[in-house]
Design brief:
Elements: H1 2-12, E1 15-20, E2 23-28, H2 32-38
């Protein structure tokens, strides 16, 4: 059950991209440990 919930929540959260030293980096809206602890 927790894998299904984890996959669902991960798909609902946004990812932000920013330019760092000429390359785009992707940063999740919330770190996984933060929302996984809430489950």
């Amino acid at each position: 059950m927790s894998t299904k919930v984890r996959d669902f929540v991960r798909n609902q959260l946004r990812e932000f991209q920013y330019l760092d030293d000429g390359q785009f980096k992707t940063l999740p809206e919330y770190p996984e440990f933060a929302w996984f602890e809430g489950m």
